[in-house]
Specification:
The protein is α+β, with helices and mostly antiparallel strands and 161 residues long. It is built from five helices and six strands, in the order αββαβαβαβαβ. It has one domain: OmpA-like domain (60s Ribosomal Protein L30, Chain: A). It is globular, with a radius of gyration of 25 Å. The N and C termini lie far apart (69 Å).
């Protein structure tokens, strides 16, 4: 019987030692304590904020620079982001999959970046806050020679500058 009691107490001690608690900070003016946030924080208006809460890229169909409904929905969220953070600027990078010549893909990436920029401008974002660049097929986001990888690489990516 004593052995069971000792074993139970040892198990409780181990469980208590494993319990974690967020650090507390004292408020000297009121004597209250608050729990500090326990995860990494995202700076409002940052690239991390854009990626996590808005979406930093839009995707295109094969051999196209036309915006899909899904792309327009993402760009609408980017408009709201830019309105919320009027000091932010975007660089929009047009990208392609690895099919086609380098010259063709640079031109297509340029058209994709400009299509995203023109949409943002049409929705009220000042053109002076937006720059474009084309990487063609030089900066793939997904590796592979299949439709899944190619679809991920046909994009325009917005970066907070």
């Amino acid at each position: 019987m004593k052995l069971h009691t000792v074993g139970a107490l040892a198990a409780l001690s181990l469980l208590a030692a494993c319990a974690s608690k967020a650090p507390e900070t004292g408020n000297t003016s009121t004597g209250a304590t608050t729990t500090a946030p326990s995860g990494p924080s995202i700076t409002p208006g940052s690239q991390e904020d854009l990626v996590a809460n808005v979406g930093d890229r839009v995707f295109y169909e094969f051999n196209s620079s036309s915006l899909t409904d899904a792309a327009q929905a993402t760009l609408d969220k980017q408009v709201a982001f830019l309105q919320r953070y009027p000091n932010d600027k975007f660089q929009i990078a047009g990208n392609c999959d690895d099919r086609g010549t380098e010259e063709y893909n640079i031109a297509l990436g340029n058209r994709r970046a400009h299509a995203a920029k023109e949409y943002l401008v049409a929705k009220g974002v000042s053109a002076s806050r937006l720059t474009t660049i084309s990487y063609g097929k030089d900066r793939p986001t997904a590796l592979g020679d299949n439709e899944e990888a190619w679809a991920q690489n046909r994009n325009a990516i917005s970066s907070v500058q």
